[in-house]
Amino acid sequence: MALYEASATQLLSQLESGEVTSVEVTQACLDRIREHDGAVGAFLKVMDEKALAKAAEVDRKRKAGEDLGLLAGVPVAVKDLLCTEGEVTTCASKMLENFVPPYSSTVIKKLEAADAVIVGKTNMDEFAMGGSTENSALGKTRNPWNTDLVPGGSSGGAAACLAAQMVPLSIGTDTGGSIRQPASFCGVVGLKPTYGRVSRFGLIAFASSLDQIGPMARTAEDTALFLEAMAGHDPQDSTSANVACPLFSKTVDQPLEGLRIGLVKEHFGEGLDSEVEKSVREAVAVYEKLGAKVVDISLPHNKYGIATYYIIAPSEASSNLARFDGAHYGHRCDEATMLEELQKEKEAFEAAGDELGLKRMDTPLIRMYRQSRAEGFGPEVKRRIMLGTYTLSAGYYDAFYLKALKVRRLIREDYDKAFKAVDVIVGPTAPNPAFAAGSKTNDPLAMYLEDLYTVTANLAGIPAISIPCGMTSGGLPVGLHMQAPALEEDRLLRAAYMFQKETAWHAKTPSL
């Protein structure tokens, strides 16, 4: 087995035994990236020198018998919206193309404390707004299983680099399915933790009440180890859950006795691809053979999930992205050109005797704000900012935003009721396998419906995971979606491990 093929757990065993060094492992991953990322486009930046220097430091500490962190010497990729001190952090946007944070996010600090080797920053949909990684202003990412297809989004680069075996571990973020949907499309594991389980300090926000950072890997075992390294209370994040964090890696291999699986009748209706449904039902049959009991349940307010999400998330985005105006943060337009154009407009109004036009003209400051934002943001980000601004505006707040918050509460109550009858809720991660690049870019609604089964977990704040559970006749991965009550990531990881012990879907890799 080549080093790049090994899981994080396998690599740690080899590193601890002295069979390999961290420098050798890191170099193998860097070579793999150099060989294949030209076709995949998973990375926005590869940090070769820093990665090898960190790997050498870990090797030195290991040889000297010093204490080492949980991920000592294991290469990790990071989605490019986590602030990383001294490294450009772009959110895949022209707005932040040259932004160098003066501090690191809590999760980055935790990775450093765990002695992980950060090899690079991965591509994403701009400001995490999208489901295909086609909205990146800095380049498109392709699916390693078929480069004519999208890898999903917004954590498309994070999922693609795992599927292409460039790294064993990758960090994603999930606001409405942005870890789980690309995990499904790329045939890897992706976990969205409970809201508050992982600190959001230093995460460049999209929607603050929905965003969550989470682990992506190729196995449930690696995902458990990775979550253990990044989770925990953080006093710098006011929304961080001040609860004890389990040792996920110690319990992941313990089977769940008497597991009750809930199948949501609303998840198996119109719009679900037949091959996806077949794979999901076959996965449920595997659990039944392991002794699980299947219970039919209903989540009646799930049908309002997309509408609710696409009011709440853009509203929060409108507020969060207001700071990117060319003065406080981000891209600033060419002021000399802007002032010259403003002067020409003034002269044209004066020549036409248009007093109303003169009164309505921007001041230089307002024009700078407007032009900087127009140049810095891409079409999808602008669409969501405008939608959010509209729903928060006077006369529409009660009709849209306030009503969406009430429906969000009803969605959470549906889950509370369901979890009295079942331990986990199982269904498809996405309604279809990976789709062709460009096929949905001009149809925002079709793109938004890709999150049909995932957004409600974010609205309810509960943990959810996607694991590979099958392949289509066209050779594309299918993801199984599992949800559990708040703070029950351990249950999801154990259920995922049970399935992976009985199947080999997670071991399948694309031919590059």
TrEMBL record:
Residues 24-493 form the Amidase domain. Pfam families: Amidase. HAMAP family: GatA. Transmembrane segments: none annotated. Keywords: ATP-binding, Ligase, Nucleotide-binding, Protein biosynthesis, Transferase. Heterotrimer of A, B and C subunits. This is Glutamyl-tRNA(Gln) amidotransferase subunit A. The active site is at 79 (charge relay system), 154 (charge relay system), 178 (acyl-ester intermediate). The keyword Cytoplasm does not apply. It is an enzyme of class 6 (ligase). PROSITE patterns: AMIDASES. Its EC number is 6.3.5.7. GO terms for biological process: translation.
